[in-house]
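Structure representation.

___
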Amino acid sequence: MAAQRERKLLFFDIDGTLAMPGRPPSRAVVEAIRAARANGHLTILSTGRPAYLVPPEIDAIGFDGHIYSAGGRVAAGDDLLFDRPMPGDLSRMVLDAIREAGLFYTLECAGTGFQNLPPVIKRLMPEGLPAGAYRGEPVYKISFFTKSVEDVDRLRQRLGSRVKLVCFGNMVKEVPFLAGEISAPDVDKGGALRLLCRYYDASPADCVAFGDSMNDAEILEAAGLGIAMGNAEAAVKHLADQVCESCDGDGVAKALARLGLI
């Protein structure tokens, strides 16, 4: 087992990092993460998804901590460290803007979501209730889907700095929609990393973070070593310290091996 002074905190995004959307992680990736954990390193899931949307095969890998909703909810083992939904007036403003733009969306709450989705997207996000069932439950993050880059630009212009808006340019190619997410501007995965470091009496220098999209930007910058996937967006690769192989090429497993963590 690795000595305590050598212990690392390892952060893993899901979509495009551990597995592509709608597909399970490879055996090589699962075994690599479990081996790192067996060597005394702490493994932390770091996802934009709420807990109810994490696939069972991802949960089954085994993690010491969890970052959900792109930093809106953070847990270490059974201890909930951070729980911050969007302010109600902010989520209502965002929902109004999305509806007025005629976009598809999901309101991501703690235990379920409220969806207005086309069938091709719903196959990837089957869990949730119809949007009409929403009754004001606290919302951690709002995901939206559109076929138009112009829609994204108009939404970004309307909401401005009142929110954090991320658009994903590297998701499932066979799905003819752009995906994006909107959250409070002061909530991100980088802040969650620092919170977990305090809990585990560690330094950000002891952290290795893997990601592929711009909702990973803050955690890749906060970690001592930020690793972008080979399939990551160009901007993500630019800000990362290293680039590993693609998600489909078992990049996480290969990077952990090169670093001597497994």
Notes: Residues 167 and 180 are 4 Å apart (CA to CA).
